[in-house]
Amino acid sequence: MPHVQSRRNRLKLLISALVLSTVFILAAVAQRKHVTADPFAPDQTRARSNNNDRPVFGKQADPLSREMPLPQNTPREREDTPSSDVSVPLEAEKDVPADVLGFVERWRSSLMRKDLEQHAATYAPRVERFFRKRGVSREQVRAEKAQMLAKYPDFNRYEIRDVKLESKSPNRAVVTFRKDWDTSGNSRFAGSERQRLTLHKAAGSWQITGEEELKVYWVRRG
C-alpha cells in the first residue's frame, strides 16, 4: 500500500506540473498578441501589409513599409512626425553640384505648385525606371502625378533633405535623398522614404530617366 500511495502522489505532482506549464504558455501567448510595435522605428522588423493599394507611383506598396491610419491631429514627438513646413532649403552634402541641386528643387517645387507641365518636363521622353515600372513615357508619368494631385491636392509638407551624390559624369548623375510628405484632400496621406533619381543631360539640361524608392521609413493615411 505505501508503494501504491507513493505512485499516486508522484502522478498528482506530474499532473499539477503539466497544468501549470499549460497556464503559463497560454498567458505568454495572450500577452504577445497585445504587443504593438513602434511604427516609427526605422530599424524594427516591419510587418508585411495585406493592403496593396497604397497610392504610390508604381501602383504597388513596398512590402516592407508600415502603413497605419493617420489621426486628425498628430503630435510632433519625433523628427519623423509631419510638420506644417511647406518649403525649406534643400539640405545637401558639399559634393552635390549646384545645377543638380537646383534641378531637384525645380522638380520638387513644380509638383507642390501643381504645375504639371513643368513637372512633367523634368522627365525624359522615355523613363527607364519609374518605381516598379520599366520603360514609362513622360505622358504616363504626368498622368500618374495628375491622379495623385487630384486625390491629395493640398501639401502640408513636401520636404527633401540629406541629398547625396551617388555618381556623376558629364552627362549623367545619380542622387539620393530623404523625402518627407504630408498631403491631404478627402483624406490624408503622409510618410517618409529614401528615394533615388537618375538624371541624364540632353541639350544641356538635366532630365529624369529613373525614379525609385530605396527605403520606406513609414507611411500613414486616413
Identify the overall geometry.
elongated
Mean pLDDT over all positions = 76
CATH top level class name of the largest domain: Alpha Beta
In whole angstroms, the N-to-C terminal distance is: 73 Å
> Which architecture of the largest domain per CATH?
Roll
Low-pLDDT regions: 33-56, 58-88
User: Total strand count, please?
Assistant: 7
- Note the total helix count: 4
Elements, N to C (H/E): HEHHEEHEEEE
Structural class: alpha/beta
- CATH topology tier name of the largest domain: Nuclear Transport Factor 2, Chain: A
Strand portion: 25-35%
Number of domains: 2
Instruction: Sketch the major β-sheet.
Output: 7 strands, mixed
DSSP helix fraction? 25-40%
Describe the structure.
With 222 residues, the protein is of the alpha/beta class. It folds into two domains: 1-35; 67-71 and 84-221, Nuclear Transport Factor 2, Chain: A (Roll), CATH 3.10.450. Helices cover 30% and strands 33% of the residues. The protein contains four helices and seven strands, in the order αβααββαββββ. The protein has helices at 2-33, 98-112, 116-121, 138-151; strands spanning 67-69, 126-130, 133-137, 154-169, 172-184, 188-202, 205-221. Strands 1, 2, 3, 4, 5, 6 and 7 form a seven-stranded mixed sheet that branches. β6 (188-202) and β7 (205-221) form a beta hairpin. The radius of gyration is 26 Å and the shape is elongated. It starts with a helix and ends with a strand.
